[in-house]
Specification:
Length: 178
């Protein structure tokens, strides 16, 4: 499907959807999309001698150092998985730990010169993927995709501490669209 297709890819007739069905379709779509992103990212990262996971962590500190816990929070992954990858990057000379003036024990991870060079080698593949997605989705469609995913992420963060419980009823207010 590309930006010129009229069909949105859904075979479902237009009807009010059950929220459970929408959640299931959203989750399955996000899981599938994550797998596709990891696969494509691994291909791009391989050109620089990295994996998608190493690119993700190294990319988080290429501009400014950050703690392992901070990287994990930003990326929505576990601190332990970031720690494991950070240790590999340090072992490869692509990153280094440094003192953190804000916290004695939580070291800052920073990219080394070799790490910045590795991330720089990702540029052509990253750019090619960005342009291919924009060709497929169209410029406005691509921008709308970003907005929808960011909105979904904020919504999941807002309800994340509730686990599997039904969300409490909240009164409608400014900015509420539900």
């Amino acid at each position: 499907m590309n930006a010129h297709d009229d069909n949105d890819g859904s075979a479902e007739p237009s009807r009010p959807a059950d929220p459970r069905e929408l959640l299931t379709r959203t989750a399955l779509g996000v899981f599938r999309l994550n797998g596709e992103f990891v696969s494509v990212s691994d291909g791009i990262a391989r050109e620089a001698g990295l994996t998608a996971a190493r690119w993700q962590v190294l990319g988080a500190v290429v501009r400014a150092p950050a703690t392992v816990a901070g990287i994990a929070r930003t990326m929505g992954i576990t601190r332990q998985s970031v720690q494991r990858i950070a240790d590999v990057l340090v072992g490869q000379g692509l990153a280094a730990y440094g003192d953190n003036p804000a916290h004695r024990r939580a070291k800052l991870l920073r990219a080394t010169g070799a790490g910045r060079e590795a991330v720089g080698r990702l540029g052509p593949g990253h750019s090619a993927l960005a342009h291919r997605l924009q060709e497929e989705l169209g410029q406005e469609g691509f921008a709308e995709t970003v907005r929808v995913l960011e909105r979904l992420s904020r919504a999941m963060e807002a309800i994340g501490s509730g686990g599997g419980q039904e969300p409490a009823a909240r009164p409608a207010g400014p900015g509420r669209t539900d």
